[in-house]
Give the backbone structure.
Amino acid sequence: MHPWEIFVEGLKNWRVNWPKLAGIYLLIYIPLTLWDLLWSSKGAQPILAQLASGLMRWALDAFVMASLILSVKEQLNAIASKAMATMKAATKYLWRYMLTTLLYGIIAMGIILLAVMIMSFMFAAFIKMPNITIAAVLMPTIAIIACVVIMVYCVIRFSLFGVICIMEEVGPVRSLKASHSLIKNKVSPVVGVFFFILLLSALLFIPGYLLIQVIGPNGAGNILLVIYQVLVGAVAVPIWASVAVILYKKLKEAVN
């Protein structure tokens, strides 16, 4: 399992199917971006309205990812379907995918909150205690490092939960367990593949931020940046989905 070969195979898979994948992405994110621009122009909104908007965006983000993964799955299985048909079929996976994402988020947030609590304890101790021993500083520091290690561990081991949820049609717990099981003996190739994905994403998104520096952070420049981000997202996100599905298949082959 060579990371570069998996990444290139994922790119080839994306290239064959890119019009449909980009169409799925843009069908959701063009209206969503227009809504965000309209929403932000109205200034501060009530907390309940902000919460409803956040939940709507989360559901639409999940719907796009589920549709993209399902589209790649259909292509690999030689199933021909249009973008709207795939998106319609993805609705039956949506709640399962959202619950899986929610469970993953709860785990990650729990680790982050634990680290924040430890840091708050350290800060309070520095204020209240005039003479702090090395042990009093060392123990919370070790705990924070442990939280960071656990967070990185979870991000890597559970990185394919969404793909598995769609590919194997399983629920949240089984998706996370299957992701952990597939990756536990292949950590280095998985990290390598995601490194190439992140590198490509950076290469795609950086020009937009350089452009805004030239134009300036004015109204027109911000709108151009938003348009650029949507267009680049229509490339980067489908590539992520294609490469992740290929990575999943390679891991399954290695295990079997």
